[in-house]
Structures are given as C-alpha cells and as structure tokens.
Design brief:
By secondary structure, the chain is mainly alpha-helical. Helix 4 packs parallel to helix 7, helix 8 packs antiparallel against helix 9 and helix 13 crosses helix 15.
Length: 472
C-alpha cells in the first residue's frame, strides 16, 4: 500500500471501530433477527448438530450463524459480541475493496475515489447490519482479488466461503466461473491448472456438508419449511416483468443513479468511438456483466423478494468501472472534481430516500431504518403508560421476537400482539418499515381509523390506530 492508501485504510478502521461503539446495543433488524434465532438454537443446544431444525431453517448455509454462535460461546450472548464479529468482517471487506481498487484502477484515477466506494449507501448500511451480506461480500471480493492474482489457494477459500454463507453464494460462484472463462478468452489471465482446483475444493467441501445435512434433516438447499420454500417458487410472467423493474430500481436507488446512468452513456459512446471495449475496461466490465446476468436469471423468474443489498458487488464494480472510463477521457464538459462532489453528495443523501408507504422499500439498504428503534421504544412505553394491552393490538411488526433481536433470554411472559386483521382488531400498530400490510389496509387505516399516537423521525413513522367506536 502507498502511504495515502494506508492512511485511508487506517481512517476507515477508526470509523468502523467508532461505529461499533456507537451501535453496540442496536438490535438485529429484519432478516438479521432470523439469523439470531438460528444462532440461538446452536448456542442453546451447544452445537449438538451443525444444522438447525427445519422449523428454523431457511435453506441458507450456516457459516454466519456458526460464527455468531461461536462468538456468543466465547464472549457471552449479547449484541455487542455479534457486532464485534461484524466489525472484523467489515475491516476485511474494506481491505479487500481497497485491494481491488489498486488492481483495477487506471493511473489517471485519483485515490479519492476510494472514499466514494466506502460511502456507497448500501455498503455503509450493511456495515451496521447483523445479516450475512457483509460476509458474502467479503468472500466475493476475496474471490475477485485471488482470481486476478491467479492465487488458487485463496480463490478456493473465497469459493468455499461463498457457498457456505448464503444460497446467493452459489450464483456468485457460477458468475466466477463465467468471469474466469472470459478472462482467459480475452487474455486478461493465463490459464493455470491449479486455479481449477479451487472449484473442486469448494464443491467437494460443500457436497460433504450437504450429505451431512441430508442425513440430519432429509433435505438440502430447498427447505421444507413452508415459510421460506414459497420464496423459491417460479413466478408468473407478469410478476417476472415487475421483478425486472424492481431489479433496475434496486440498482438506481439511494443515489446510485448518478453512477449507473452516466456509466451506460460513457460505455455506449466509448464503444461507438473505438468499436470495442478496451482490455483496460474489460477487467471490470466482464465481472459486472456476469454478476448482473447471473443475478437477473437467478432472481427475476422467482417469487423471492429482491433486496437492494443483494446487488452490492455489482454496485461497487460499477463505481470502479465508471471512474476508469470517466478519467480515461481527455476532455469533458464538466470539471471532474465537480462530478466527484455530486456523486458523494448523492450517496450521502441516499440515506434520506423514503418512499410512500404503499411502495415496498429495502429499509436495511440505507441508514434510514436506524431511526426506527427509538420510535418503537417510545410506542411501547406509551402503550404501557396508557394501559393498552398488546393482545388487542394487531400488527405486522415482529414485536413478539424483540427479545431475540436484543439477544436476550426468552421472557417467561411475552407481550404477544394480535394477528393483523383490520376487520377484527380494535387497535392496529403500523410502521412504514414493514412491507407486509396490504395497500388497501393502509388506505383503510389512514382514512377510517383514529390515530391514537404517532411518532415520526425524518420519514420513518410509527402509528397506533384505533377503530372508531361506531365500527366496533
């Protein structure tokens, strides 16, 4: 590393450490809560088996929940110990991202671009999330860097880590095979036999795990848990079309349109001028196309809701490619420093994006969701103060598993909320951070129900509704 790169890396580590201390008590959010639930089973069962029972199992490989449970065993079951694990992974991601920047940037690209990579909105949000996406990103970046070095041992670690972290790791591994083939085809890499061992190592270890899981549970990959299996079903042609729109939206939102739209323009004009994509750009253009293509094929035709965080590796590669193409142009109508400022401003303000309540939002892909936790605590305190029993309050919020989100022991007496049914509920607790309440029910609540209490913070809302007495 150069002195400036070491300085930037050191600053990033300090920021991540500061983030750890500031957020060490912030609970698990959304999908991270289910990871806590599975890690808790491993923790309490003292690893009696390496896979959680089907009633908890979504089908995803267990490397992340193994890691959380092991940290709880060593440091105590608490949020802060899981966040310490996340801190270590975050530092690894930043190091790998810096390494990829060094390997792929053209000489004209200034080092300030590194900072734009590090403030990409979804990357920043995921450094605070206790889900497994940062671990998946770490192995993705490790795979890219190892492939570019033709280092088969670390490449094998990357491939193995991918397939053990998340089912999307299988997609990413397939994308790496395509990238590898095209790198050799376009003479970016030499064909080395040892590099092919990496795929064999990763596949062999994963197959051994699948054999073990089948012996324990009687199934692999496609879970028999109906709560999750319905997300792996093929969808209708119309829904696939809607998923295609959502796929594009996920790339452009939270300020990233300032990268993707100009990048498309720059690539088209470059191709028209040179009639090809130069080798200096292919090193990033190839993986970008492979990841986008495999993700599109693997996600759009199916019913599983797509999260913006799924495409982090695509967004980061797109930023690198954009600046390589942008700074390769000798003339441009706008000063390059202004472009860098606009992109930085767009990324920072991306955390302020709030959609109307009837539009589903990937809340864990920006920092907007961080404002929710105080609102939740305020509302629960209000309900207790006003003696409103939770049993008569319907909600789609996972209030009954708050103890798990805080990595606490299950209370002997839970404040269970009623199942959401606006025809039967006397009260209804709604927040725009949940995407489950149907649009027509939201309209009904806002037009015909009484607002008992409302807390808001910069677009995030928590509202307790009561049905009018005449409707009871």
């Amino acid at each position: 590393m150069t002195t400036r790169e070491r300085t930037i890396f050191g600053i990033c580590i300090l920021v991540l450490v500061l983030e750890f201390f500031l957020l060490m008590d912030i609970p698990a959010f959304w999908d991270a809560k289910s990871k806590f639930s599975r890690a808790n089973w491993l923790f309490e069962s003292d690893f009696e088996q390496l896979v959680v029972p089907t009633e908890y199992n979504s089908g995803h490989p267990p490397l992340w929940i193994w890691s959380i449970a092991l940290f709880w065993k060593g440091l105590g079951k608490a949020i802060w110990s899981a966040r310490l694990l996340l801190l270590i992974v975050n530092i690894g991601v930043i190091y790998q991202l810096l390494s990829l920047f060094k390997k792929t940037k053209l000489p004209k690209v200034p080092e300030i671009v590194i900072l734009l990579l590090f403030i990409e909105p979804t990357l920043v949000a995921q450094t605070t999330s206790l889900n497994n996406d940062m671990l998946l990103l770490f192995f993705s970046l490790l795979g890219m860097n190892s492939l570019l070095k033709n280092n088969w041992i670390w490449y094998a670690v990357g491939i193995t880590g991918l397939v053990f972290t998340n089912l999307r790791g299988i997609y990413i591994s397939i994308a790496f095979i395509c990238i590898h083939i095209l790198y050799i085809r376009y003479a970016i890499l030499e064909s080395k036999r040892k590099m092919y061992y990496s795929y064999g190592v990763g596949l062999s270890i994963f197959l051994l795990f699948l054999m073990y899981q089948y012996q324990e549970l009687g199934w692999v990959l496609i879970t028999k848990n109906e709560s999750y299996s319905q997300h792996r079903e093929s969808t209708t042609l119309f829904n696939a079309f809607k998923n295609s729109i959502a796929f594009v939206k996920n790339l452009l939102e939270y300020g990233r349109f300032v990268i993707w739209i100009p990048l498309l323009f720059l690539l088209i004009t470059h191709y028209k001028k040179h009639k090809k994509i130069g080798k200096q750009f292919l090193i990033l253009f190839i993986p970008l196309c492979c990841f986008l293509g495999i993700f599109f094929i693997g996600m759009v035709p199916f019913s599983n809701p797509m999260g913006t965080r799924y495409l982090m590796i695509c967004n980061l590669i797109a930023i690198l490619l954009f600046f390589n193409v942008f700074y390769s142009r000798n003339t441009f109508f706008i000063k390059k420093q202004i472009v860098v400022f606009i992109i930085a401003l767009s990324f920072i303000t991306g955390h302020l994006w709030i959609y109307p309540v009837t539009i589903a939002q990937s809340w864990d892909s920006s920092l907007a969701h961080m404002r929710y936790f105080k609102l939740e605590n305020k509302m629960l305190a209000y309900m207790q103060q006003e003696n409103i029993p939770s049993q008569i309050v319907g909600t789609n919020l996972p209030m009954h598993t708050r103890w798990m989100a805080y990595a606490k022991e299950k209370p002997s007496k839970e404040n269970n909320f009623a199942s959401p049914d606006i025809k039967e509920n006397e009260y209804y607790l709604f927040s725009n951070i949940e995407n489950k309440t149907a649009d027509e029910d939201i309209v009904e609540l806002k037009t015909h129900w009484e607002v008992v209490q409302e807390y808001t913070s910069m677009g995030v809302e928590m509202i307790l509704y009561r049905k009018h007495h005449s409707d009871l």
